[in-house]
Amino acid sequence: LFMDLPLMSGEEVEHAPHLALTAQPWPGSVAVYDAATDADYALNEIIAARAVVGVTETPLFAAPAGRIDRGARLQLRMLSGTLQSIGDAALLAGGNLLAIGDGTPGNWELLQFRDAEVVGAGRWLVSHRLRGQFGTDAAIPEAWPAGSWVVRLDGTPQQIALAAAMRQQQRHYRIGPAQRGYDDPSYVHEVHAFDGNGLRPYRPVHLRAEPSGSGVALGWVRRTRIDGDGWELSEVPLGEEAEAYRLRVMQGDTLVRSVDVAAPAWSYDPAQDGLSGDYRIEVAQLSARYGPGPFASVTLSA
């Protein structure tokens, strides 16, 4: 499973994907080859460790980030590895980090769990969760359905080499037992391009709109993907070359107006665009290398 993940420890290569591998039987070590086309492959990485990988057997419904999700226990069938419970201190220190997604490289939510209960051979119930960690709150769907992939992020899934210039460019990968050549039938062939989500800004929070003249005054609070845990700081680090935001005025699926601003505030009068009825204002932080991150939105009425 290729995973285009956000920064977690801060030590990662920002634009490079992680790769989680499992197989039955496990071949001992796995080779990863890559190429621009399905020919002339070069060795990218040798991976010796088998990842803890499973699939969900019950849905995981949406829950707010930033507070404990006490919803129904999530049942997992682990294809490799085991899980264990941890204490509150270990949870708040970042323990039991899990990725859940649909198997595509860019669509993963990172969550943590405190409690793990074994309920059968390879089956576990996990609960007392922290959702949308490391800026993946924007990836939380209404529900992750049964059959979604889960990967334990315990340091085993590792990054593969990817030059910064190759970001967003499609590449071919062949993955299989390191003892065999990449043209062996046991090798899996996949084609992917990666956005480099370690560069992706977090979605702004606390978006608010207050009446101002004939329009509205908007404000929001930015977040940071780098060094954001220092409580002694009056403001978290920017983490970008410059502070910038993109705002979009939407009516249904129609883009009415787009503007970039350099501060977390903007005033708008819907009359200047002839709007009537409901409309939506969306805001995202901009990265010079990545572009806009996920958008926060507020629905208003003209």
Textual characterization of the structure:
- The structure is a single chain.
- The chain is built from one helix and 24 strands.
- 2% of the residues lie in helices and 43% in strands.
- It has one helix spanning 88-92, and strands spanning 2-3, 18-19, 30-35, 42-47, 53-56, 60-61, 68-69, 74-80, 97-101, 108-120, 123-130, 143-144, 149-152, 158-159, 171-177, 188-192, 205-212, 215-221, 245-251, 254-261, 265-268, 278-287, 291-292, 296-301.
- The strands form six sheets. The chain has a six-stranded antiparallel beta barrel with strand order 5-8-11-10-9-13. Strands 19, 20, 22, 23 and 24 form a five-stranded antiparallel beta sheet that branches.
- A hairpin with a 2-residue loop joins strand 17 (205-212) and strand 18 (215-221).
- By secondary structure, the protein is mostly beta strands.
Shape: globular
Q: What string gives the helices and strands in order?
A: EEEEEEEEHEEEEEEEEEEEEEEEE
Provide the helix percentage: under 10%
Low-confidence stretches: none
SS content category: mainly beta
Strand element count: 24
Report the span from N to C terminus. 46 Å
Sheet with most strands: 6 strands, antiparallel, barrel
Strand content: 35-45%
